[in-house]
Every structure is written in structure tokens, then in C-alpha cells.
Amino acid sequence: MNILDNFINRFQLILPVPTDTIQSVDDDRSKKSAAVLLPVICKPEPTLLFTKRTDNLRLHASQISFPGGAREPNDHSLIETALRESYEEINILPNQVQILGKMQPIKSHSDYLVTPIVGLLSAKVSYYKNPAEVAVIFEVPLKHALSLTHHHAIMINDARDKKRLFFYRYNQYLIWGLTAAILNKLALQLV
Fold first, then answer.
1. Beta strands in the chain, from DSSP E residues, in sequence order
2. Contact 113, 182 (CB under 8 A)
3. How many CB atoms lie within 10 A of CB 98?
4. Which are the contacts of 13, defined by CB distance < 8 A and separation ≥ 6?
5. In this structure, how many other beta carbons lie within 10 angstroms of the beta carbon of residue 11?
6. Is 144 helix (H, G, I), strand (E, B) or coil?
7. Cα dihedral sign for 73, 179, 141, 54?
8. How far apart are CA 162 and CA 142, in angstroms?
9. pLDDT tens-place values along the chain, 191 residues long
């Protein structure tokens, strides 16, 4: 079994998020919710796509992230949010993404409930950055990204309590915070 088939099989064997949790996240529009797409590119050596945000953004400037953002009132689901944001940021059409499923939501430091959506992209899909939002698009080999030996964490104190801050380095890119926490959670689920 190749790396991609193994990833798909293992991800789909994860117990799904309980339906009541999905409903409350998907249907309660009064909560601050967001979604990100974890785009797995189906190459002979599969990769995971990341973006580096531009320096001039009001929030999360220069940070490494997955394409995604806040849910808008017209979004019918968090999957739609992730696909809309991916199109806006890196020009991936929604019909070019094969959705594998959702991970459990993670609360961000800005109190958004962020739902990671895992999707597959053909190696033939072309994408390009929206220069108003994205400075760089890069790929990381999936095997490297999911290897827990590359994941690190430190404990930090904030005004409320102690928190674990995850980080992961690939070449010149330092992936940290929520993006690294999502990556770490995915890697742990697939162990």
C-alpha cells in the first residue's frame, strides 16, 4: 500500500466527530466559527499544501497557515467555508477538491472554533496565490509532515492559564500555533 492510500485508509478509520458536535458547530451561527482546508496533493510522494500570509494583513500577518478563514453568513457549512476561502486565497475551485472528512474543531486563541477539513487535490490542479492575502504557497511531503519526530511543543503562560504551543519546522518555514496544533492532532490521530 502506498503512502497516500495508507493515509486515506487510516484517516477514514478515525472515529467520526459525534453528530451532535458537528450539528452545533455547523448550525449555530452565533458562535465564531472558521474552517481550514488541509489540501493533500496526490503526487507519487503526496504533499500537504501550506500558505504564508502576507505581511500587511491585520490578523496573523506573515504566519504559515492552511487556506481558510471565518465562516460567512452565506456559507451553508464549514466545508463550504473552507472551499470558499481556498478559492479566494489560492484559486482552488471547490469541484477540484475531494473531501475526505472533518477533524474535530480546535479553539483558536482568538476564540474561533476552527474545523479542519481534509481534502485531496489532483497533482494536475494548478493554484496561484492571491497577492492581497498570500505571500508564498509551498508543499511539504506528507510523510514528513505527519512524522511526530518533527513536531515539538513548549508550555507557555498567558493571562488565563498554561498552554501548549506547537511548532514544526520544514526547510526555511517555521509552522507554529494553531496550524502546527492541527498538524500535530492529525499526526496523532493517524498513529
1. 33-42, 47-53, 64-65, 68-70, 97-102, 106-107, 113-122, 134-141, 151-157, 162-170, 173-176
2. no
3. 13
4. none
5. 17
6. helix
7. positive
8. 30
9. 688 998 998 888 765 444 334 444 444 444 799 999 999 999 999 999 999 988 775 655 568 999 999 999 999 999 999 999 999 999 999 999 999 999 999 988 788 999 999 999 999 999 999 998 899 999 999 999 999 888 888 888 877 777 788 888 999 998 988 999 999 999 988 87
